[in-house]
Amino acid sequence: MSDMLRIGTSALLAYQRSLSTTSHNVANAGVEGYSRQRVGLSAQVAGSPFGSGVTVTGVERMTDVYANSRLVDDSSGLAASGRLADIAARVDRLMSDADTGMSGAISEFFAAAQDVAAEPNSLAAREVLLGSAESLTSRAGALSSALNRLDGEIDQRAASVVEEANDLIAQMARVNRDIAAGAGSVNDLRDERDRLTRQLSERIGIRTTLQDGDQLNVYTRDGHALLLGAQPGRLQMQSDPSDPSRQRLTVGGGNGSIPIAAPSGGELGGLFSARGQIIDPARDRLGALVGDLATAVNAAQAAGTDLDGAAGAPLFRLGALGAVPNAANTGGATLAASIAGDAPLPEGGFTLRYSGGAWQISSGGQGQSLSGSGSAADPLRIGGVAVTVSGTPAEGDRFRLRPGADALAGLQTSSIGARQIAAAGALAPTQDAANAGTLELRALETTDASNPGARAPAEIVFDDPNSYRIDGGALQTLGGDGRIDGPGWSLQLAGRAEAGDRIQLTPTGANSGDNAGASRLAALASMPLTASGSTPAGGYADLVASGGVVSRQAEASRDGFERLMAADEAAASAVSGVNLDEEAANLLRLQQAYQAASKVIAVADDLFQSLLAAVRR
What we know:
Elements: H1 2-27, E1 37-43, E2 54-61, H2 65-96, H3 103-118, H4 123-181, H5 186-201, E3 206-211, E4 215-220, E5 225-228, E6 231-232, E7 235-240, E8 243-251, E9 258-259, H6 266-302, E10 304-305, E11 316-317, E12 324-325, E13 334-339, E14 350-355, E15 358-364, E16 380-382, E17 385-390, E18 398-401, H7 403-410, E19 412-413, E20 424-425, E21 427-431, E22 440-446, E23 458-464, E24 467-470, E25 476-477, E26 483-486, E27 489-494, E28 502-507, H8 516-523, H9 536-576, H10 580-616
Antiparallel strand pairs: 1-2, 3-4, 4-5, 5-6, 7-8, 8-9, 10-20, 11-19, 12-18, 13-17, 14-15, 14-18, 16-17, 21-28, 22-27, 23-24, 23-28, 24-25, 26-27
Helix pairs in contact: 1-10, 2-4, 2-5, 2-6, 2-9, 3-4, 3-8, 4-5, 4-6, 4-7, 6-7, 6-8, 6-9
């Protein structure tokens, strides 16, 4: 009878705990991240050969560790791709929209230049050209400001996300400590830790390991510790030594801070990817495009003559280029950068590093070569950028240059009037009326506006059909292409000259009605001005198209992660989720078992009472 009572009591306690656990499942059915629990039962093997009852082996947490691991990874990927897709879509709309993009402004500018070429003396056409130039710079400035605001928003969002991540890390440290101490329901604490882990992965990409059985360690994907047991690390946003205007992500604190060069995964990964893949390329390439266009337009102006008979003044003004020293530099060198004007600007930023007694391009500057010594007479040259070095650099000193972004930020329209549009050429070619040959004057181009000969009168006299002299100088041979190169100018001929034929080049006077300068300006629309060999409109179209590609790729990645997340959640829920119908059935079954165990105890008591009664007699 004592065995029977012990067996009944063990069953009563076992099913009481099972009922409590099932009730706990029902109560938490709507709690996010809750994993259903199950009481483990095992027969007691020691004792009577007729059985010794049941024992509770523990409360098992029903979970699929592999599905949970996939959820952490895919949550991180979804957060990163979602943030990247959002910013990419915003930049794509900004660049492609007719009201905010530059495509229309570029087309209107060259259409206005064509109208001036058709009516070179029309002040109305010239005013329209000035207005279109102002519209172009205004649109470029608006885009620059919008991209700058997005860049600043990235730093602000990143700082907010970092604080959220640090709070999650601190909570995970406390949960680790409570689990180690056995405080409260350990299974519920594990659920809480899994929930916090997933939320942290939505902020930054992580990987996790279990230590000492049940202590979770958390690292960034490149191996920096964020949590070691109950010891939390700390993320920080600190000034970037290569560009103090920006923030970079670090882990640690004070002098022990370790930079995370390229955080991957999570919202932080998406934010920094958006900066590196979208905002910086858009600003650099757009700035290089407008810088090259402005430089070419100013060169065309300088090569022409305005209505007052003077050389054309610059139509655009470009700001100075920056060369930002790294905060870790130890030397005394300073760099001054400027637009050389004789080559396209690089379509991206780059870093100059002093090493082994020479300057090198240490990062960026793809496809660019470095030449020159850095002196005023022989500046460092990287594409269309000239850099002069003052002072003495130290080994390893670095300077960051972003010529495109600087050109975009500094672009303005010069304060010139309609009469100062250089619609005419610098020189006007005419043939002597007595020429006997069949010469045709095809085109006269200014090749070097700074050369005094570009605006000086000149005479070309042919000694025979294949040789000539300029202003009575040395005899020169006429090439098969019919081109004559003079001091600062080039004349293209067709036909055949005869001995004694003469061509006069005369400086263009005021109100000439010539349209060579305006035609040269309009022709820039079809000329490859950029480093990638694109026309102004074509270069902008390429920029918009590449931004659209990044935007669509980010959206496709986000959609893919959403599908993966749905599959992961379904897989995890199949194991961990609470099925109320199943739990209700379990409650009935366990209730019956509990009642049966109670009946066993009652029967044992009745038998014991019968025995006592028999003994008394």
